[in-house]
Specification:
Rossmann fold, alpha/beta, 2 domains, 6-stranded parallel sheet
Length: about 375
């Protein structure tokens, strides 16, 4: 007969199954949509249609009064969709999940609920230590949606905003080439018997693809530069035309810029800050009244003469060349951009609600 000690030892060595991950609570999520405090940000993360879908799935949504006005969504639209309208940002910020476009201020973090979730463009490269410490103090799970991936490894928010920026950037160029804005007095594209507008695009990513499509649709002549041959090959395939492509070398780029009416900087940094590929000398050799648009200015820019501007004062002159360097170009078309953001975030919120919160979402979905 075995002793009591050996019995205990034998029982203690039997492996036990791990406990399954379970929902923290049965209650539905509370989503908060505060009004953006930055005067340059006009987008909102959810449309009234999305709020209606979430409400129908038992999710409560709180919207601060006026949060959607810049994108032409009224409080009545949100209220009719089932949202609760509140009249202070503090009430909207006191939610399980806070959806914002711009990063929150320190005061907004203070107003957030301990242990809540924040989904926003955190712009981590430009944040200071105090910002991160404040999030840690409140035990906030902060998700930077510019790093969000989908199931196939793509970056849906970056892709969507890049599509919008690329399509919009050529319309901005058309605006500033006109005589009404002291431009060169050119039509974007061309007409019979008149040479087409010359557009140089630096970068061959999503912004470049949609800028190229729009430019070609308007009748402009384009040249695309990038140091990745596979990107140049891909953009030619996507556009479906034999367009001019080249790697970035100083001689070819300088010559193309000297003849260009519009130069679009659309390089996206793979790691850290962007590299400057366009020198001040190249810009100075452009024709007077030409236009430079640096879409990548939020990552440091790729044009030496570029400096960040705002929607209120979008342009400045340098070497008699017009510079447009607004970082959040999609905010110019706030309604379109809001629909695009809403389409990406709504399914994520629904999944999060089914699982019971942000931490469960992280636990269950590697891509998230």
């Amino acid at each position: 007969m075995p002793s009591e000690l050996s019995k205990t030892t034998a029982v203690g060595l039997i492996p036990k199954e791990a406990t399954a991950q379970t929902r923290k609570a049965e209650k539905s999520l509370l989503i908060g949509l505060p009004k953006e405090v930055s005067p340059h940000e006009k987008r909102i993360c959810l449309t009234p249609e999305a709020v209606g879908l979430l409400s129908n799935n038992g999710i409560r949504v709180i919207v601060e009064s006026g949060a959607g006005l810049q994108a032409k969504f009224t409080d009545q639209d949100f209220s009719d969709a089932g949202a609760q309208i509140v009249y202070s940002s503090k009430e909207a910020l006191d939610s399980d999940v806070v959806l914002k476009v711009d990063p929150p201020t320190l005061e907004e973090i203070d107003a957030m609920r301990v242990g809540s979730c924040l989904i926003s463009a955190l712009q981590l490269g430009s944040q200071n230590q105090e910002f991160i410490q404040k999030l840690n103090e409140k035990k906030i799970t902060a998700i930077a949606f510019e790093y969000l991936e989908d199931k196939v490894g793509g970056m849906p928010v970056v892709r969507a905003m890049s599509e919008i920026a690329g399509s919009t950037v050529m319309l901005i160029a058309a605006e500033y080439l006109s005589s009404a804005n002291d431009g060169k007095g050119l039509i974007m594209g061309g007409v019979t018997g008149v040479p087409p507008t010359q557009v140089v695009i630096i970068g061959a990513g999503t912004v470049a693809e949609y800028a190229a499509r729009t430019a070609l649709g308007l009748g402009a002549s384009i040249k695309i530069f990038d140091n990745h041959i596979y990107k140049l090959r891909r953009i030619k395939h996507l556009i479906g035309q034999q367009i001019y492509t080249s790697t970035i070398d100083n001689a070819s780029l300088a010559q193309a810029m000297a003849e260009a009416d519009v130069v679009i900087g659309a390089l996206r940094a793979e790691k850290g800050r962007n590299k400057i590929v366009v020198s001040e000398e190249m810009v100075a050799n452009m024709m007077h009244g030409s236009l430079v648009i640096d879409v990548s200015i939020d990552q440091g820019g790729c044009i030496e003469t570029a400096r960040m501007t705002t929607h209120q004062e979008p342009v400045f002159l340098k070497n008699d060349i017009i510079h447009y360097c607004v970082p959040n170009i999609p905010s110019r078309v706030a309604r379109t951009a809001s629909y695009s953001l809403s389409n990406i975030l709504t399914p994520i919120i629904l999944q999060m609600n089914d699982l019971g919160g942000a931490e469960e979402m992280i636990f269950n979905y590697k891509w998230f």
